[in-house]
Amino acid sequence: xxxxxxxxxxxxxxxxxxxxxxxxxTVNGQFPGPKIVAREGDRVVVKVVNHxxxxxxxxxxxxxQLLSAWADGPAYITQYPIQSGNSYVYNFTVVGQRGTLWxxxxxxxxxxxxxxxxxxxxxxxxxxxxxxxxxxVPIIFGExxxxxxxxxxxxxxxxxxxxxxxxxxxxxxxxxPLYNCSAKEIFKIKAKPGKTYLLRIINAALNDxxxxxxxxxxxxxxxxxxxxVKPFTTNxxxxxxxQTTNVLLTTKAEYPYANFFMEARPYATGQGxxxxxxxxxxxxxxxxxxxxxxSFNKSLPSYKPILPALNDTSFVTNFTKKLxxxxxxxxxxxxxxxxxxxxxFTVGLGENPCPENHTCQGPNGTMFAASINNVSFxxxxxxxxxxxxxxxxxxxxxxxxxxMPLAPxxxxxxxxxxxxxxxxxxxxxxxxNTSVELVMQGTSILGAESHPLHLHGFxxxxxxxxFGNYNPAKDRARFNLVDPVERNTxxxxxxxxxxxRFLADNPGVWFMHCHLEVHTSWGLRMAWxxxxxxxPSQKLPPPPSDLPKC
Length: 550
Ligand code: C2O
Hints:
With about 550 residues, the protein is mainly β. The protein is built from five helices and 32 strands.
């Protein structure tokens, strides 16, 4: 195997957006961060050196981390953060995956500026299951605050209210010309006519699912979350924070004498406030009448894409239904046909009481909270994987995470009388190789909202989804066990449910959470603890010697 070495120096860097300069946390002074390129089967070694006054931890989102849970990265789950002045080497092998993933900080809200692409090429000599593109272009959506994002989330957590919304969405760090004071900060694809481009689209925004479209061009979806899908063509795609989507874009056969806007803006169904602005970039065609070889049509585009309405759940449902595994001989869909354990989780918002002598800005003067089966996960102060490995769970976590809601209620109807959550650090223990079916049911407590749930350490198959309350007798019979999409992040529909299956073949402690950062911060998170199997090749190896200490 080839080993790919990277050094990530975490540094403060001044960046100006929307006419305001702020000092942000970056990797190697770059924003967005550098891309990691590897082939399927390669080993990736990233030395992270922390030069900033924050605790840092990085996560390789969507990388399976088979037998390498120590490299997964969520702070206080698999490791202590890397303290200022210290370093840690993340070391993992890319097994059975090819496509686009990404890396990001996994502590507090530092992922607002610490993120970048992971590009996994197929093994040497193995082609894509589609025609070789002329060029590959990473497109990362982000969210930009003029204020310091650590201050934004800390203030929200102290007052119990919602955090201030972002000032802009960005494409590759650039807000684009639809924002004030951003005329020059525009992402452009310099297009040649009659070519096919592979866009590697990553949603690194903190709190919003996004629609994306390019005026007068269609997009062919070929892969999501580093798994090939049956190709289909659409004008608009939806991407939730955490998700990645590879699409083919074929440019006009002839020079069109025009440029075209690409735009992204949110899909939002909740009642809270959100940034409903639009980020624009430009698909800029080269001007064939010019003698200069570097001359592009510089006029601002007059063609704008038509994006769905902000709350267009029927577009979203139709779009997600089209996502199917390729399920070919070469790329089979290994959907667990038999299930060992079934779990039913409610996901949604709730409240915590306001501490005495405090004024809280959450619902009715309480503090916002979020939970799974009414447990709002409290971050431990000891890393769970280390306590588990040392056999010292006492006082760190409890193993009694509820496998279903303690008191069932009408999840999509009137909320129960008490919407207060239970605050605890609980994990759910799975024997090695357990075949799991998990139904995640959205609740309407404080509003029905789509929650993109992300599971670390596994891909899962999305075998079913629907609206209203999940009804096992009726709904399970309709599960797709043939070609369901395989991914690592899935939206639980607002006022509905989603069913996933996965095989717990990876020992370790694996975080699962809503990838809307505000919901994670409020407690919409939990952890699975997958035990070792009996064979040596089924056991979590000991931690690397440089694993950060407390
Ligand atoms: Cu991309 Cu736990 O996150």
